[in-house]
Amino acid sequence: MKLSVLIPAFNEEATIEQIVRRVAAVKLPVDLEILVHDDASTDRTPTILAALQREMPQLRVIRRATNGGKGVGIRTLIRESSGDMCIFQDADEEYDPADYQRLVDVYRHGGWPAVYGYRNLAGQPLVGQIGNHGLTVLTDLLYGCWLKDMETCYKLLDGRLLRAFDLRANGYDIEPEITINLRKRGYRIAQVAISYHPRPTPSKKLRRLTDGWLALRMILRHRLPTAPAMPRLATTAPAS
């Protein structure tokens, strides 16, 4: 059995080496495949990944020539994966790969097609807590999944099932789209508690209003005849 770890990355020179090494060091009773999508980084991320790839046979890097967004990266990684299971990993150090074992155990022995790791969000800014909670509650109400943390990065899914999804999101709205695809097919989602260490300062790539609206629109789009149009929020690219 193989686990594919899918890491979308954009300008993560400060943390990408540490997180890849931490993922590679995890001891699991399954084979490990590490896939990184470099979304046209302009810092030292490509150089660091090239050196790691020469050192680690289980690591494969897919580099994009132009920046496409988190959803583009995740969809590319899913398409390139070959694992029986797939789990998503952010390129920073907010999540601890040591928690993989808990999700893998539930998947292998509990018969669940998907296992989510839910966070304690107390360390997030208040606006982040409210936004995450609101999106989760709305998803629960509209799709009957009763999740504690829909926006969590740690989503472990059956690989064949995940690769069969018709995902189209280009940005952070990929998170609810994955959950919606599971629920529209009638699959239930297991949940386990995980550790979480928010960045001391929020990522400049995260645009809370714009990304939150896109996630909200994705949730509503699959339940309403017509989803509301995108309002005129900030349209400039996030700073690298």
The structural domain count equals: 1
| CATH topology descriptor | Spore Coat Polysaccharide Biosynthesis Protein SpsA, Chain A
Describe the global form.
globular
- Helix and strand content put the structural class at alpha/beta
User: How many H/I helices?
Assistant: 8
Could you describe the 3D structure shown?
With 240 residues, the protein is of the alpha/beta class. The protein has a single domain, classed as Spore Coat Polysaccharide Biosynthesis Protein SpsA, Chain A, CATH 3.90.550.10. The protein is 38% helix and 16% strand. The protein is built from eight helices and seven strands, in the order E-H-E-H-E-H-E-H-E-H-E-H-H-E-H. Strands 3-2-1-4-6-5-7 form a seven-stranded mixed sheet, sandwiched between helices. Strand 2, helix 2 and strand 3 form a beta-alpha-beta unit. Helix 5 runs parallel beside helix 8 and helix 7 runs parallel beside helix 8.
Main attributes?
240 residues, Spore Coat Polysaccharide Biosynthesis Protein SpsA, Chain A, 8 helices
Give a quick summary of the entry.
The chain is of the alpha/beta class. The chain has eight helices and seven strands.
Topology at a glance:
Elements: E1 2-9, H1 16-25, E2 31-38, H2 45-55, E3 59-63, H3 70-80, E4 85-88, H4 100-110, E5 114-118, H5 126-143, E6 155-158, H6 159-164, H7 174-184, E7 190-193, H8 208-221
Parallel strand pairs: 1-2, 1-4, 2-3, 5-7
Antiparallel strand pairs: 4-6, 5-6
Helix pairs in contact: 5-8, 7-8
